[in-house]
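Q: Got a minute? One more chain.
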Amino acid sequence: MYDIQVKRIHEYKRQLMNILYVIYRYQCILGTPANERSRKFVPRVVMIGGKAAPGYHVAKCIIKLINAVSQKVNNDPEVGNLLKVIFLPNYNVSSAQIIIPASEMSQHISTAGTEASGTSNMKFVMNGCLIIGTMDGANVEIAEEIGEENMFIFGERVEGVNRIRKEMAEGKRGYVGSRLGAAFEAITTGFFGDVSIMHPIIDSLCNGGDNYITCFDFYSYIDAQNKADDTYRDYKKWTQMAIIGIAHSGKFSSDRTIAEYCSQIWDIQPVSVPHPSTNPNTRVRSFANLPNVQK
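A: Always. Here it is, folded:
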C-alpha cells in the first residue's frame, strides 16, 4: 500500500501522529514471529512530505524524527519489505502531479476544528485514493458526497476536542497508554539514534501539553489503520470504494468552485467569448471582439 501524507508540516496537521503510528507498527512487526508477519501485515510504504516554516522549531523536530525512523526501519532486515518510510523533501506541485495519482491511501488527520479547508484531499479522491482522516476541513464535505463508509474516519469531533482540552487543563485525565508509551520510550532511549530534540515535545504531550489531542486520538487512529489494512486485503472492496469516490467527487471540480465564487463572492457575470473564425487568417480573438466592452 502506498500511504501518503503531503502538506505543510504543522502540529495541528499531526504528521507526528503518523510517524508515531509507524513506530508502533514497526514494533508490532518485530514482536510478531517471522513466519506470521507476511500474513498479518499488509506491506506498506509510508511517505510523508512537506515543508516547515523557517522559524517553526517543532515542525523541524518532527522532520528530524521522520528521517531518523526512516533510517532505522529501512535498514532493518527483520522488517524486509513489510514497511518502508520515506520523507519526501521539497514537496511542490510538480511532485504532487506524480505522488497524487500513485497514492492508494492518503492521510488527512488534522485535529477536528483546526483545518480551514485543506483541499488536497479532494484531489486524492478524484484520483481513486482512499482517505484516512478526521471529520475536519474538506473531509466533512467529501464524506457528505461519497459517504463515511467509503472513508476511514476516526477521532473526536469538535465537541469532543473541546471537552478533552478542558479535562486536560483541569488535570483530570492522561491519554498516553501503553502502546503510545512504548513508542515514546523507543524515541527517548535512543533506539532511533539521537533525536533528543524531540524529548521536550514528548514531555509536553505527556504532561498536559497535548493541545491537538494527538495522544487521545492515537488509539482511534490505530483502529482506523487496522480497518484500512483489512479492506486493502479485499481487492474488490477497496476498488469499489475508490470508484465510488471518483464517481461522486464531481462537486469538487474547479468549474463548480469558480462559478460559485463568481456568483456568491465576487458578484461578477460571465462574458460571452465569440467562437473563433473558421478562416485561419482571421482566427484571432481581440479586445474589440468582446461584447459589452467600451471602445
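A: DSSP finds twelve helices and six strands in the chain.
Q: Perfect, thanks.
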